[in-house]
Amino acid sequence: MVGEEIVTSGSTSCQGCGHAILARLAFKAFGRKTIFTLVPGCIWITLSRNIPLFSTGTVFEGGGALVSGITNGLAARGIEDMNVVAFYGDGGTADIGLQGLSGAAERNENVFWICADNQAYMNTGGQRSGATPKYAQTTTTPASYIRRGKRTKRKNLPFIVAAHDVAYVGTASIAYPSDLVGKIEYAKGLKGFKFLHVQSPCPTGWGFSPSDTIKVARLTVQSGIWPLFEITEGNDFRLTYKPRELKPVGEALGLQRRFRHLTDGESQEIQSRVNGQWKQLLEIDGKRLPY
Amino acid sequence: MGHKELMVGNKAVAYGAVLSRVQVTSAYPITPQTTIVEYLADFIASGRLDAKFIEVESEMSAQVSVQGASWAGARAFTATSGPGLLYMHHPMMGCRLPIVMAVVHRSNKSMQPDHTDLMAQRDTGWIHLYCENTQEVLDTMIMSYRIAENDRVYLPVALGLDGYILSYTAEPVEIPDQDLVDSFLPPFKGRSAPHPDMTIEEWRANMSRGAGGYGTQKAWIDHHENMMAAKEVIVEVDEEFGKVFGRSYGGLYEEYNCEGAEAVIVAMGTIASTARPTIDDLREEGKDVGLVKLKTFRPFPHDEFREMAKRYNAFGVIDRNISIGSGGVVFNELRSALYNVDDKPSVLGFHTGLSGEEVTPGMVRRIAEKTLEAARGPVEPLVEWV
Question: Which of A72, A83, A88 to mutate to test the interface with B (most CBs of B within 10 A)?
Fold first, then answer.
């Protein structure tokens, strides 16, 4: 992978942390002329000190406003050639941070937002978030004979952002580094609001072996659970990874303890929802979305 | 020379932002602050102010975005009122960036003014300056940036003006010439401002100046020490402002008609204006009671009040606020400041004007007369609602 190695080794993140792999890839693509910002979460606590770039952080709900202020402050000083990066988790993006995200996206602020999505509040020990998938066990959505893990689907974050008509929206996976880095390298040159939603498997929270991070990530993409696509200016939708045939979801889910309680019926429900979604995505592939 | 214009307090705030050459502004409309946002938008649209306006979706984002802009090296301004200020509380807490915010006072139990909104931000580590009239609002805007950006201080400033009474009431205001303001207020040089040609080491060394790091008790100590250093800086800036512009506000406080007084009343904001002619009348009647207008609430002028305690036998503190379950915030702090002085003066508390209820000269007269009585002997009750 080309690009300067910016992230240093020896972070305090958990073994096999998806965020650490993502940070390494992403900042190679951004390069040195980059300011990255933080809100509370795993990235701030375990990784930020390993990223020797200009950086600052703010309150959990303030991420969207912080990058907005920075990009405007720099512009007021005549500095237009620095990447202003929001590097937040799913809480700071989809839940407590959603209002600020929406404001910044609506204003089409010249920033690059990366959502490192480990699908729960992992920094506080793995509570459910708006990005937690249906049926997943978390510490606040336990599975028992009464409760079946999380009761509702996760928010459709990339489409929420795309509905703001921004410069760029994409999804990515750490198992597909060329796709991920290519998307950053393309989008960082665009003026306006850029959003990349990256799945970041969490061995601690999802319950799989730290050596399987990439495997889990790859299987979720290959099974259509985590489709890779981008929505470019004008709302042009394009799948960037199209397997001829999807693998069954069971392979990816079976590796994760958070889905261990699934009944056959529940697995089947997930499978048919993924199939349905994939069919819809194929239908809009290469087309312009309404906005 | 400057020129005079008739303007409301909110316009004076906006003029202050223009004259201070604010580079980034962001605010969310709320009554009675709203017209500040509109004036600023107009000034930017007409080219009078060369600034970025971030049209945020909330006060929380207004506060955080001006912090982001200030961090990035731009002079930043925001404004809000009552509930909006409370929504900003989280990002305000512990902020160490030299932004200036106008707080157009609004009660939380009414749309009308009292000081409970800014008093609720008492412990956030901001400098709090209360204004009495429209001219003072404009002048304090300019002074605030000098105070905030001072290297010994480097802290945010909240300046308060009473909603409606100042925000929507027109008074003649002298607008100083831009050249003169430029000579008084040099361009902002931010400590944490990144630059593409700067190394991370240089930037870190510059940024960490004067502030203990996150996760340390030293961060609190340093914040407090910088706040206490602001006392000196506020006085210096006020004196220099007086020399350059011919107007001065005493810095931390002003003693009005206090010569030879036995007792003083202590007032903040527009109540000080109501009090002045009343005090004049009382002095003419031979009653030795003066007025101390408290302008700077944070940092609190403890030592200065202890000095005053040598001259006055009684203080009657007017609180346009209440800390529910305790009492008047200024009353409590002033009494606490005087605990260790010899020959303690009497300190009386008066709650008044909450939820914007009118504070009349007659009420001030009663407060002043009771305080004077307390200078000569015990009075009851110690604290009352007027």
Answer: A72
